[in-house]
Design goal:
CATH superfamily of the largest domain: P-loop containing nucleotide triphosphate hydrolases
Structural class: alpha/beta
Number of domains: 3
Largest sheet: 5 strands, parallel
Number of helices: 20
Number of strands: 16
Bound molecules: adenosine-5'-triphosphate, magnesium ion
CATH architecture of the largest domain: 3-Layer(aba) Sandwich
CATH class of the largest domain: Alpha Beta
Length: 462
């Protein structure tokens, strides 16, 4: 039974919330002041969400919140505040509170918020446990965690929680760099197949003539050069999960073979004589609109419907700007640790610039900007000068002479180049051939530039 801790100096509020939440099946602890609440948190019973009043006599809500975070408690905290004091609520959100609710309560909204908080707490605990488990198994190898507290990300966590443990095929859709691969991994780790293999294949990175043997393997002597049997990804993922990345890039001929495995759970190795049966869960991802491709005739409708049982939509970063500060701090601290620099975070001004930007390359682009900033900075907090000029001026590509603030010519040109390439990639839906054509460079040069500017998608990672 999830446990909720209610902290409010008014006894009637505590009582009301206790009745309400207990009726919904929560275990409820109430505290009339912060010190009592801390006792509960330090106690042996696990607390899954905290509702705390902002205005309290001894320690107020914000201070209470700051204190438990300092002590390393990650439990989601919902702040309760009266109308007209939203400034404090906003401050609480900035400090990383889970959400805030207004008094007098809208009961439905309150319950929904508590429910979400408890779900997120559950996910977070599972991920922590898994991370610990994995760290024990393979020292040094950590599971990348999904970061984000926006409503849109909560929706994603909810979907993961709901469908991870089923064997349904999942299609993850979303723009480049939104975290599709991360989500695929999270689904696997939260499924009952977690001890089985997680195998990834990037359909765009493998030449068409090799794709079949990569997926299904081949028998010895199947073709010249096949000197021994090779297992395909489907077999390697037996008992686990196969992640088909960039599924839109599978040629039509292969689509038919893929459909057969999805329907019948069996396939032939190249040159094989009897079908192989496998128990493999499929997760696919794409940044293209498969529905549209079906209409154009470049993707089979039957395969689309097979893949599209459950769809998880990754929100673009520009639609969840409230996550930008959180993500940036995380990437900055990660890079600082790696580079052994004493950088601690980001200044308000720099964060505001990040929040104002459009992020066509989404979280991946943000990560690159943060890493670059950590390399460049000479202070303890990232400041606007550490960010690419395109972000500083607030307009993509608009680095004008009047705005020059001492960057080298190379830095300026590089910034312009970067945003032009991004813009072109975006215009062509990240189709590299068309982008290269329009920019008047060859594909190879484009690949190199994409790499240089840290704009690579998984297409170039392999
Ligand atoms: N919610 C998140 N929290 C932390 N890191 C994230 C998050 N989303 C994405 N990232 C990071 O951003 C980068 C891109 O993520 P990922 O590779 O999963 O994107 P993608 O959607 O698969 O992109 P593409 O379509 O280009 O393959 C990775 O470095 C990943 O760790
Ligand atoms: Mg990817």
């Amino acid at each position: 039974m999830p446990r909720v801790l209610v902290v409010d100096d008014e006894e009637s509020v505590c009582q009301m919330l206790r009745d309400l939440l207990e009726a919904e099946g929560y275990a409820v602890l109430t505290a009339l002041h912060a010190s009592k609440a801390l006792e509960y948190l330090y106690g042996k019973d696990e607390v899954n969400a905290v509702l705390v009043d902002i205005r309290m006599p001894d320690i107020d809500g914000l201070e209470f919140f700051a204190q438990i975070r300092r002590e390393g408690y990650t439990v989601p905290v919902i702040v309760m505040t009266a109308y007209g004091t939203t400034d404090t609520a906003i401050q609480a959100m900035k400090l990383g509170a889970f959400d805030y609710v207004l008094k007098p309560f809208n009961i439905e909204e309150l319950l929904l918020t508590v429910q979400k908080a408890v779900e997120v707490d559950h996910m977070a605990r599972e991920l922590t446990a898994l991370r610990r488990e994995l760290a024990g198994k393979a020292p040094g190898k950590e599971i990348e965690e999904l970061i984000g507290r926006s409503a849109a990300m909560h929706e994603v966590y909810k979907q993961i929680g709901k469908f991870a443990d089923t064997d349904y095929t999942i299609l993850i859709v979303g723009e480049t760099g939104t975290g599709k691969e991360l989500v695929a991994g999270a689904v696997h780790r939260n499924s009952k197949r977690r001890d089985g293999p997680f195998v990834r294949i990037n359909c765009a990175a493998i030449p068409e003539n090799l794709l079949e043997s990569e997926l299904f393997g081949y028998e010895k002597g199947a073709f010249t050069g096949a000197s021994s049997r090779k297992l395909g990804k489907f077999e390697l993922a037996h008992g686990g999960t196969l992640f088909l990345d960039e599924i839109s890039e599978i040629p039509l001929a292969m689509q038919a073979k893929l459909l057969r495995v999805l329907q019948e759970k069996e396939f032939d190795r190249v040159g094989g004589i009897k079908p192989i049966k496998v128990d493999t869960r499929i997760i696919a991802a794409t940044n293209r609109d498969l529905g549209e491709m079906v209409c154009e005739g470049s993707f089979r409708a039957d395969l689309y419907y097979r893949l599209n049982v459950i769809t998880i939509r990754m929100p673009p970063l520009r639609e969840r700007k409230e996550d930008i500060g959180l993500l940036a701090t995380h990437f900055i601290q990660q890079a600082a640790a790696k580079l052994n620099k004493p950088v601690q975070g980001i200044s308000d001004e720099a964060r505001e610039l990040l929040e104002a930007y459009d992020w066509p390359g989404n979280v991946r682009e943000l990560r690159n900007v943060c890493e670059r900033a950590v390399v460049l900075t000479r202070s303890l907090l990232i400041v606007p000068e550490d960010l690419p000029a395109t972000l500083q001026s607030g307009f993509e590509g608009e680095v004008t002479a009047e705005k020059w603030t001492g960057q080298t010519l190379y830095e300026i040109l590089s910034d312009v180049e970067r945003s032009v390439i991004l813009r072109a990639l975006k215009k062509h839906n990240f189709n590299r051939t068309k982008t290269a054509q329009e920019l008047g460079i060859n594909r190879r040069t484009l690949y190199e530039k994409i790499k240089e500017h840290g704009l690579e998608t998984s297409l170039t990672e392999e």
